[in-house]
């Protein structure tokens, strides 16, 4: 086994920012808005770095797809302990429509090129909320998948994954190479320290284009419009229980 | 001390308790308020007013007559001008996490809730400074900074507003290494009672040190809203430690624990946190969290640094504790084990409350020079036993600051009275040992008389003159820090 782990990291609008929809309803405002690494991707990086610290794997490679700013996100992963980065340059309309199908094609191609033993992704991105990339990547590679992982243990050529599912927790054992997606409780990501941020500046980020990997980024989807959730209306106070019952009947709820 | 008359009161005061003068004037100004901060920015709702008339102390709720939600400093200034013109009290409100009744609107008036001003402005990474608005809490700031390798270490426990922390000169477990708010505020933007806006170190300025003019910045730090409304604070940031080690050690006596602390500091170990828990607290923590620590004075330590320096720090500290009859020295580097080691300290408040379910807790807060700490702790523990009071002790022993978490039955006036007297004796004991009646929590409502004893009449007179100069109409948070002159 190569001992190499690929981790996908996505640049998204920071979770603490109040999102605003553009006046023309074509999307959300991103100019001048704080961006950072998708929180689930942080958890994925942390898990990979922990594996390396325990000497279970040899190298952590951080991958991000997007314009030049995607390199900032890779630098954060490097500061957390990833060894090197790969920036897949996607810009313009291709970037606007970049989604799980395109990213999973990229991850699959890179996994083959880099002879990866594991791919670890966040379970979903907080902007798209698709929760598809990990699963599609596994399908394209015909690899097993351990999704919604809240606990991961490498055991030789297999991985034991405890998954968070609706009914509780499910434990599975899958062979490597495999795709894992990180859920919230998998770990608590470390904060990058200044010395590690300095060291990260010296680590290498290779730049490639999808075409170099023989990939077509065309999307089959078209965004028609984006709207804010409906404004919460003020409640109505009533004086008596009878009034309450009458109101409920009036609005068809009783 | 006012607070224990209030601890027994369970009902909140009625709307009519405000002064009728304020009531009559208020209706006239509401439309002026609305024209400045919008319909949504003015609230008369009873629940909203009650929420803004209390904090996490045991002081009863004194709701303001109206709560305003300004969105920027221009609105704060315009609103303050109106209040000034109509002689309405102004009470600034951050997160309501104070411990001394600082936001009680004792004379009614107008609460300025600053939570909508919640932007992190002007981060300068290479200069290690950032400017924030009052709606930014310390945890929100540290989350914002997480990709930069920087953090703001002052940690009073609660997720408090940073401007509120400046207003109360907050401190915390990290003070022994990183200082309190006094050492970490570089500049403030403040709206005065008459609406004028001042930058205490000059607009936008953030040199790491200065010798320019009177230190206005530190005058406002700790002024508890009585001199102006803080609308921006520029803070000193630090590098996130490369690595952290936590340690625990038990001692046969309070003296041994304090001696170890003094020697660790003297040895130049830059210990980040050094917390003392007494035997009563250790027992409470064992019961609450199912731990099995020795029921004896215990030190909880935390070290920050590079991998190499940590080893040296921990070894030096361990040697010192051993030479002071310390036992059971345990340390840990990974996050999960550190959490477990420090669990007792983190749960101290809840563990104390769990000693007597149904009771409330009040944290005392005094600070003395380190050399007096053993004596004051021994005398205080004797006082607790003699007066049959429940008061487990937790202390920021590196600063000489400690808290007795007084667990008291709010329905028992006799016990309340005993606690009241105990707290007064404790404060006077600290004053007699060259200390202060409040290390961290502030004066607020309950310690105004003690402040006079601590400072002496000349200093108090000077404070009163300053207050008169900044706020001649006594509109800024009346009833706090200084006793009214009429009494």
Automatic annotation (TrEMBL), chain A:
Domain of life: Eukaryota
Signal peptide region: none
Family matches, as Pfam families: ETF
Chief place where the protein resides: mitochondrion
GO molecular function annotation: electron transfer activity
Example of a GO cellular component annotation carried by this entry: electron transfer flavoprotein complex
Biological processes per GO annotation: amino acid catabolic process; fatty acid beta-oxidation using acyl-CoA dehydrogenase
Subcellular compartments: Mitochondrion matrix
Keywords associated with the record: Electron transport, Mitochondrion, Transport
Entry keyword annotation includes Mitochondrion: yes
InterPro entries on file: ET-Flavoprotein_bsu_CS, ETF_a/b_N, ETF_b, ETF_beta_N, Rossmann-like_a/b/a_fold
Domain Electron transfer flavoprotein alpha/beta-subunit N-terminal residue range list: 25-217
CDD domains: ETF_beta
Xref: PROSITE patterns: ETF_BETA (PS01065)
Function: Heterodimeric electron transfer flavoprotein that accepts electrons from several mitochondrial dehydrogenases, including acyl-CoA dehydrogenases, glutaryl-CoA and sarcosine dehydrogenase. It transfers the electrons to the main mitochondrial respiratory chain via ETF-ubiquinone oxidoreductase. Required for normal mitochondrial fatty acid oxidation and normal amino acid metabolism. ETFB binds an AMP molecule that probably has a purely structural role. The electron transfer flavoprotein serves as a specific electron acceptor for several dehydrogenases, including five acyl-CoA dehydrogenases, glutaryl-CoA and sarcosine dehydrogenase. It transfers the electrons to the main mitochondrial respiratory chain via ETF-ubiquinone oxidoreductase (ETF dehydrogenase).
Subunit structure: Heterodimer of an alpha and a beta subunit. Heterodimer composed of ETFA and ETFB. Identified in a complex that contains ETFA, ETFB and ETFRF1. Interacts with ACADM.
Family named by the database record: Belongs to the ETF beta-subunit/FixA family.
Protein name as annotated: Electron transfer flavoprotein subunit beta
TrEMBL record, chain B:
SUPFAM superfamilies, A to Z: FAD-binding/transporter-associated domain-like, FAD-linked oxidases, C-terminal domain
GO cellular component: mitochondrion
Record protein name field: Probable D-lactate dehydrogenase, mitochondrial
Enzyme Commission (EC) number: 1.1.2.4
Lineage: Eukaryota, Metazoa, Chordata, Craniata, Vertebrata
Assembly description: Interacts with CSRP3.
Cofactor: FAD
Keyword set includes Acetylation: yes
């Amino acid at each position: 086994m190569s001992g190499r782990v690929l981790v996908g990291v996505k640049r998204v609008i920071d979770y603490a920012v109040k999102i605003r929809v553009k006046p023309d309803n074509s999307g959300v405002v991103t100019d001048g808005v704080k961006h950072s690494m998708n929180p689930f991707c942080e958890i994925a990086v942390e898990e990979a770095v922990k594996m390396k610290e325990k000497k279970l794997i040899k190298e952590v490679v951080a991958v991000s797809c997007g314009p030049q700013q995607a390199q900032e996100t890779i630098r954060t992963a490097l500061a957390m302990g990833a060894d090197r980065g790969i920036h897949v340059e996607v810009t313009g309309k291709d970037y606007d429509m970049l989604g799980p199908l395109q990213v999973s094609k990229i991850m699959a191609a890179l996994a083959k090129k880099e002879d990866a033993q594991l791919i670890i992704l966040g379970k979903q991105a907080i902007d798209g909320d698709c929760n598809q990339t990990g699963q599609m990547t596994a399908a394209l590679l015909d690899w097993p998948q351990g999704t919604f992982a809240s606990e991961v243990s490498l055991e030789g050529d297999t991985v034991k994954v405890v998954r968070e599912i609706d009914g509780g927790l499910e434990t599975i054992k899958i062979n490597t190479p495999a795709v894992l997606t990180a859920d919230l409780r998998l770990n608590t990501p470390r904060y990058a320290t200044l010395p590690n941020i300095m060291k990260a500046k010296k680590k290498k980020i290779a730049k490639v284009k999808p075409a170099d990997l023989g990939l077509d980024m065309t999307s089959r989807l078209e965004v028609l419009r984006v709207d804010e959730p409906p404004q919460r209306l003020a409640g109505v106070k009533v004086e008596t229980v009878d009034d309450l019952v009458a109101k409920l009947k009036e609005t068809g709820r009783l | 001390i006012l607070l224990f008359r209030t601890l027994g009161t369970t009902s909140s005061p009625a709307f009519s308790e405000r002064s009728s003068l304020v009531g009559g004037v208020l209706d006239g100004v509401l439309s002026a308020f609305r024209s400045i901060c919008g319909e949504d920015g003015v609230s008369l709702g009873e629940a909203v007013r009650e929420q803004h008339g209390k904090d996490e102390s045991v002081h009863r709720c004194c709701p303001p007559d109206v709560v305003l939600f300004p969105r920027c400093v221009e609105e704060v200034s315009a609103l303050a001008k109106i209040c000034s013109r109509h002689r309405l009290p102004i009470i600034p409100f951050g997160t309501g996490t104070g411990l001394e009744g600082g936001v009680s609107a004792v004379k009614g008036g107008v609460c300025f809730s600053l939570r909508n001003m919640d932007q992190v402005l002007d981060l300068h990474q290479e200069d290690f400074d950032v400017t924030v608005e009052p709606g930014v809490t310390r945890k929100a700031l540290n989350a914002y900074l997480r990709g930069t390798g920087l953090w703001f270490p002052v940690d009073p426990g609660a997720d408090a507003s940073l401007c509120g922390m400046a207003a109360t000169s907050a401190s915390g477990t990290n003070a022994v290494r990183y200082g309190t708010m006094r050492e970490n505020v570089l500049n403030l933007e403040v709206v005065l009672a008459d609406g004028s806006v001042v930058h205490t170190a000059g607009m936008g300025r953030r040199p790491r040190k200065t010798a320019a003019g009177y230190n206005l910045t530190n005058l406002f730090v700790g002024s508890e809203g009585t001199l102006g409304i803080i609308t921006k604070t520029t803070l000193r940031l630090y590098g996130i430690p490369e690595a952290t080690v936590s340690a625990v050690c038990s001692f046969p006596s309070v003296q041994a624990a304090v001696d170890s602390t003094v020697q660790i500091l003297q040895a130049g170990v830059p210990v980040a946190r050094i917390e003392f828990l007494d035997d009563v607290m250790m027992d409470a923590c064992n019961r609450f969290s199912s731990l099995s620590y020795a029921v004896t004075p215990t030190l909880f330590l935390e070290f920050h640094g590079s991998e190499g320096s940590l080893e040296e720090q921990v070894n030096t500290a361990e040697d010192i504790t051993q030479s002071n009859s310390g036992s059971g020295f345990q340390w840990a580097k990974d996050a999960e084990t550190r959490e477990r080691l420090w669990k007792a300290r983190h749960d101290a408040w809840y563990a104390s409350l769990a000693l007597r379910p149904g009771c409330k807790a009040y944290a005392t807060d005094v600070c003395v020079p380190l050399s007096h700490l053993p004596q004051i702790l021994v005398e205080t523990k004797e006082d607790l036993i003699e007066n049959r009071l429940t008061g487990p002790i937790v202390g920021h022993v590196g600063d000489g600051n400690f808290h007795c978490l007084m667990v008291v039955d709010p329905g028992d006036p006799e016990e309340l009275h005993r606690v009241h007297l105990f707290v007064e004796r404790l404060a006077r004991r600290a004053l007699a040992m060259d200390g202060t009646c409040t290390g961290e929590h502030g004066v607020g409502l309950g310690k105004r008389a003690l402040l006079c004893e601590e400072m002496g009449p000349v200093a108090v007179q000077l404070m009163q003159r300053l207050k008169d100069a900044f706020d001649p109409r006594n509109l800024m948070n009346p009833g706090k820090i200084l006793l009214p002159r009429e009494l």
